[in-house]
Amino acid sequence: MNDNQIDSAPLLAPRVEPAALSHRFRAIGVLHHPKKPESLELAQEIEEHLRGLGVGEIWQASAWASEDVARHLPDVNLLITLGGDGTLLRAARIGARYDVPMLGVKMGRLGFLAELAPDHWREPLGEIIAGRFWVEARLMVRARVERTGHNGAAPEVLCEYDALNDVVLSRGDLARVVRIRAELDGGYLTTYTCDGLIISTPTGSTGYALAVHGPILPPEARNILVIPIAPHLSMDRAVVLPEGTEVRLQALPDYDPVLTVDGQVMVAVGHDHEVVVGSSPHLARFIRLRERSYFYQSLMDKLSWAG
């Protein structure tokens, strides 16, 4: 899927429980980071190793080449990403609609999503190819920007994106607050006066949402967070919503804010636009080798919170 493509799939998806996949990986894609030469070298090593393990079809591509990657995905059984969490976020936005599981090799500074280390991947990869793993399914959100219809006309959908971490409606580069009217399932919630508003998945609860003191949600939870950034004399608490809730946001016409998706896609939002966020019909799926309780200890270790 290209970043500008509008997906007309239904908003809600059935809950998918983690389950073992067939260990017969017929085709595997290896995505390297285009600005990390060491990741391209590692991609070549991994391809050679996979061929030695009997994998029939292997291809490589830049994780930033969305259209090239999307062309392969209908026939791919596994995506291996080499980079940080940002690389996995890109892969999730492309691959989730095809139910392709992902395996991250961490080459960034602080990674919550990657499963393997660049200096210890051969033995774990063999375990995975042999079928000894489990699959973690994570909720994604879908955001669309609509232009208000006139004289009873339906609103026009300008763009639509899936996100694994979060979508943020914020003031952009101006050093002033933005006022954002928020509705939940068609009912008025409040009008925020703040630097911005984060709509986060459980995955994103350890990202930007955590930086503004939001709650930490387990990765397989089916909830959506709404949390303001630096609120001023307005609602200052996070709201935790169930899967399927529709959040509708409208920035009041002081100036035009921006919408960012996973911190990687930016969209200008006009005074006659609304941002609508709900559950994506697609889930991001991650190959795991660690115990199912890995998340909390990993969080303590990475944030140096362990006693």
Describe this structure in words.
- This protein is α+β, with helices and mostly antiparallel strands.
- The protein has 2 domains: 27-132, Probable inorganic polyphosphate/atp-NAD kinase, domain 1 (Rossmann fold); 140-281, Tumour Suppressor Smad4 (Sandwich), CATH 2.60.200.30.
- The chain has 6 helices and 16 strands.
- It has helices at residues 37-52, 66-72, 85-95, 122-129, 208-211, 294-302, and strands at 27-32, 57-62, 78-83, 102-106, 134-147, 156-163, 166-170, 178-184, 187-194, 196-200, 223-229, 239-242, 247-251, 258-261, 265-268, 273-288.
- Strands 6-5-16-13-8-9 form a 6-stranded antiparallel sheet, with helices on one face. It has a 6-stranded antiparallel sheet with strand order 12-11-10-7-14-15, with no helix packed on it. A 4-stranded parallel sheet has the order 2-1-3-4, sandwiched between helices.
- Helix 3 (85-95) links the parallel strand 3 and strand 4.
- The longest helix is centred in the first third of the chain and has 16 residues, at 37-52.
- The radius of gyration is 20 Å and the shape is elongated.
- The N and C termini lie far apart (44 Å).
- Residues 1-22 have low confidence and may be disordered.
